Amino acid sequence: MNVTTEIKQDGRSASFTQFQPNSGAVSGNRFIDFYNAGGRLKLSSEEKNRAHHYSCSGQVGAIIPVRNELGNGSAYPDTLEYFKDALGDPRKILVVDADSTDGSFEEAANKGIPVVKQGDIERALKGEKIEKDFDVRFPLNPGKGKTLQLGGLFYYYLRQRFNNGNYHVPEPVEIQESDSDIATIWKFDPATWFSWVSIQSKKPYTAVLAAQTNRNNQEVMHAITSRMGQNPGFDRDAVVFQEMKWPLSGQRRVTPSLLYELPGVTGYPVETMQDLASIAHARKAGGRIAQVEIINRCGDGQNSPYKEETMMGSISALVDAVVGDVYSKGYDLTNMPLEVYRLLNQELRRRECNDQGEPFSVSVISDKPGPNILIPARLDQVLSSPSCLVREGYVDENILFNIAQDLYGKVWSI
Q1: Which of 136, 242, 265, 376 is the most exposed, having the fewest neighbouring CB atoms within 10 Å of its CB?
Q2: Other CB atoms within 10 A of residue 164 CB
């Protein structure tokens, strides 16, 4: 029996249904199907086995961005072992190392997992052309978003260009992006939950996100809802965004077609941009998005107040610019022409340093007497999707070919 309960979320009344094993998702008039609302469901051994079989059958690949992950109590080695077990073959995993200096690269390589240095991929980008056409600084700002963008670029090249008469790199149906420092990875078990969702669905979701319990999403929701009413196109996607229980998830699965069309954002707003782009992509392709609530949320610690406020400040600034320079011109985050990217980056740079030379700063409330603390924050840069960068000649494919041949030549040769 399914039990529907009414809860308050971010000032909105929302109905979620607690589902028993093998039941469908909360859907109705919602765009996002929601599985395991309330986190009360426990998968049976049979369901876990079926999910594991799905994950190991070639349906799923993984991209893991890393940077100096080793250290006291590091969860990184466990995360790598988990995905080796979950996917059944280390070759299905791609670790993208943001030029670590602590042995993170070697940790993955020693486990037989393909690992590529972010800097090697970036050297394949035609920096002068990118600076000129997109109006960004090069090299790109560091951050998780940059690592994911370059990982997606290399993943696209492997499956769409490296495959030829001599090599065949299998393309999965779904690609899982995962943080590398999940302290409770075996208990959290996102691969099993995502595969369970895929089995319930008649066709792959455009994106599946982990809805992590006990996370406060009010600030990021405010960054979206406070911009509503300015543009009907943005409102259409923002209404769907509001359905998300926790939108800033570092655990998600996407179809290759979405991964290859995601715009690149270099910093904190990467998940927000991915969410808005996923909504637009699914809407136009006739797809759907799912979230699954996992009660054993990842043990990734809590952000410091400084980081939290910098994140929200960056997200708010980027959403503001997206509404003003993308949606107002009739586009969304999956179909922007080059000129819109230029306008967007120019606006972000203008916000980063105003006419008086004052840097963009966020205010952090202090528990001590006196004024709040202002923290300068570098705003993000936005690049077009992996497929566009390759297709439009922003990449030296010879460099990527040499990286791919060194990494996969022996294992994927025909």
Answers
A1: 376
A2: 9
